[in-house]
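[[Sequence with tokens]]
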Amino acid sequence: MKIAWYVVAFSLLTMGTIWILQGVNILPGSFMTGQIVWAKRGAMVALVGLATLVFARWSSGRAAARKSDR
């Protein structure tokens, strides 16, 4: 399950970063290019990805602690 959380987190971070770069016109070639609304949406998606990554690390630490308590 930990690997699935990491995959989701890194996917969200990657997608959010791409949207930010397209929104601020650094990464051209899309309908999103140069539209600041996509940079804002990308920032939100990247923050959700970061929160997911923190959750994945936190939950894996708790699982390791539970195993050592046994």
Summary: The two ends are 20 Å apart (CA to CA). Helices lie at 2-23, 36-69. Residues 2-63 form one domain.
